[in-house]
Amino acid sequence: MSKIKTVKRIVPTSDLNKHCGITLGGSQAKVEAWPKNPDHLPLTLVMSINCSLAKLYFLPDTIPNNGIIYIFSTYHPGEYFLDLISTSGSIEDLQFISNGYTQVIHSEDLEAELIKSETYTIPETYAKIVDEHFEVDDFVVCSMITSETPKQISLEKYIAKNYNVALQIYSSDFPIPYKDIFYLTDANAYLLIPKRQSPTTLKGVFFISPS
Question: Which residues are paired to 188 by β-bridges?
Fold first, then answer.
């Protein structure tokens, strides 16, 4: 008999009572200034995570106890931008992406002013967590909170040793016309979080794996 694993799938919902603290898209963020990539183009807000609500679903000490994590990414529909945000799991690729083509920003000041998006805006969509069961050897293709490195990505030893894969985000879970948010409509993106970090601040890395 095949072994079964349970994953915490991130599923869009219109029921605010089931909101897990994770929100897809959005038009504003509590940041000092709307982030731009090295080409001076504003980034698109992909997801926000309300830590005080969402921490219940993550392994202990994975994300800060409070504040909001914002995940931003380069997005240019009609143009080729995949190479700016994707990696095979190498240190060099992640360093290139982390120069600003994607950004992970942790905002601790919940009373801060909301800054409006300066570019393409994905409609804000609340999400809930649903436990789903898969065979251990399955390649799971969906947005989910994860406590292990998914089988479909390979990370260099240094990265695997020093970072946890906290989230997998699937492009087709976004509403039309943003299913190409990661250029491909069947791409998975990942949030890496350092294993050793301050309990109140976070410096994460976000990248796309086209495989």
Answer: 170, 209
